[in-house]
Structure formats: structure tokens, C-alpha cells
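User: Predict structure, ligand 1,3-dihydroxyacetonephosphate.
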Amino acid sequence: MQAKIRKLLKEKNAIMLAHNYQPPEIQDLADMCGDSLELSIRAADTDADVIVFCGVHFMAETASIISPDKTVLLPRHDAGCLMADMIDAESLEAKKAGMAPMPVVTYVNSTAEVKALSTICCTSANVVKVVNSLPEKEMLLAPDRNLAMYAASKTDKTIHVWDGYCPTHEWLTADDARAAKAAHPEAVFMAHPECRPEVLALADAIESTSGMLRVARQSSHQAFIVGTETGLLHPLRQQNPDKTFYPASEKMVCRNMKRIGLSDVAACLENMTGQVKVPEEIRIPALAAVQRMLDLSR
Ligand code: 13P
Ligand code: SF4
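Assistant: Predicted complex:
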């Protein structure tokens, strides 16, 4: 299957991108693995004709927003994001209508329609930089309430919160985190900003998925508790064979991130199915918000 996929990638001048939560066999075969920001940047820079996006729908959609002339394939159409489903264009319009005019910072974990109504996008890796880049003192940050509260704690901005969240990260309670720390007192506790504020208060490092990979590589510590989706344990262990990684909770599994298998990748490349394409009237305003973020991040 791996040989077949490599051959198809070559034949179609395709690149395979994988998020850090993808199953090990997908990460191992991908041309590049990364967090949401790194994958967006790579999607913008590639000269491949086809991007096979192994992640969830909003990630493939973001690649299509950035690169409309490329064919973007999502190997499983049912790989969605439960947080992205917690906001839509209609509810955001209604919220904006009830507020004083202010910028809308939208987490990339959202649909193209929602991005199209936004001032600028952000990811977990650049949220503080994005918030600080705006001249306004007050803004709405949607849809992740935990990311919004985290950004508010790191800036002097007034941030209005949308009541969305990631169920996978909400699973991790402060009691779980305290239990993991008590079981492994020597370990550095790394948490994703999608975690609850009371969990983040217990963390030694708050990072995006690739930020955690960097911390683990650079740290002189030998043991780490990983407060994010358990898929990240694979690259952490692969890149640091002499270090030990404990999941903060075994419950932190995103089922959507686990849907894609090698046979799905082969099938979508063979038949060119699973194409994700954003209509121009949505893509153009969505691109403006994504591009503002990318311009800050390069
Ligand atoms: P990162 O951008 O940190 O990889 O996170 C994406 C995501 O979906 C977290 O749940
Ligand atoms: Fe969405 Fe959470 Fe899954 Fe990330 S881990 S894709 S935010 S549901």
C-alpha cells in the first residue's frame, strides 16, 4: 500500500500533508507533518498540482482557500472537526449584529463561510501575535472559548468569547492533570491552549502541537506529560527515542483525526475523489482573513 501511494503521488505530482494527530502510518508516509499553521504555510508554498490533506475538513478547506488552482483532496469526507461545527455564518452574523463594531479573530478550526466573515485568522501557534497585531483594544475571538481565554491572559486586550470548545481537549480535567503530575513528578507538563483554563494553570508549557515537539526536542528534561490529542505521542517518541512521554489522559482521542487510513489515501489519489473546493464568493473574503495571518507568520 505504501509503495502504491508513493507511485501515485509521483504520477499525479501530488504532495501528502499530515497533521500531527494523524495515525502513525499516515504520518510516516507523508511528505510533511505539522500543526495547522505549518501545514497552511506548506500548502501555500508547494508547487505540486495536487495536495492530499490528511487531517480534518477545515484544514483541507484552508489549503483550497490559499491555493485555488490546486486540487485539494481529503481522503475521508466524514473527517470533520466538532469545534468547527460549533459556529456557522448565520450565528456569527447574529452575534456581530448584537455587538459594537469590532474585529473578529477566527481560529482556523472553522468553516470557510465563517472565515469569510472574519477580520483575521489565527492558529494555536500564533494567537497571541495575531491578537497583538490588531490596533483595536477589543475583539471577538471565535469559536474556541479556551483559546480566547488563554489569549486574554497573555495580552491586555478585551476579548469577547464564543462558547465553543474541542471535546477532545475538554476531556482533560484539572483532576486528571493533577493525577498525571503526581504519578510522574519529574515530568514537564505540556498542554494545548484548547485545554480548560484550570488545566492550563497547571501546565509548565502551553504550546501548539508543533510547539510541543520543539519543546521536547530542545528541553534537557527526560520525561513529559502530553496534554493534547494522543496522536502527538507518535512523533514525540519517534523524534526523542531516549525520552519518555505520558498521555495526560488516555481519553484525549479525536475520532475524526483517526478516520483516514492508507487505503483511503490510495483510493482518493487513484480516482481523484474527495476534492474540497471553496466557491469564489466565499474564498475571496476567507482568503483575506487567512492571508493576513500568513503575512504575520512568515
Ligand atoms: P495545532 O494547530 O496545534 O496542530 O492544533 C490543531 C487542532 O485541531 C488541535 O485540536
Ligand atoms: Fe477539532 Fe478537537 Fe479534533 Fe482538533 S482535536 S480536529 S479541534 S475536534
